[in-house]
Amino acid sequence: MGLKTTTACLGYQQIVGLAASTALTVPTRDLNGLNADPTMALIVADTQGVRWRDDGVAPTASVGMPLAPGVPLLYDGDLTVIRFIEQAATATLNITYYY
Description:
The protein is an all-beta fold.
């Protein structure tokens, strides 16, 4: 699924302080306040790489799928189970949600 096939943006989130395994805060309402269920997220790490897992196990700084800074991850799995952790201090995640 590409960004051109989405119908609406549900919002933006920035996560800092990824020293511990961290989940996304998935929005439940769209920008108009109506109930919504995002089906995809565009996720980009800033400054430092992160690792992620979506199999119910928390990632560590050395175990999990690596995501390099500036490389987009277009994730359309279960947004409530994916978790992130920084590979080095000061990592930041920028996330935009879509449905």
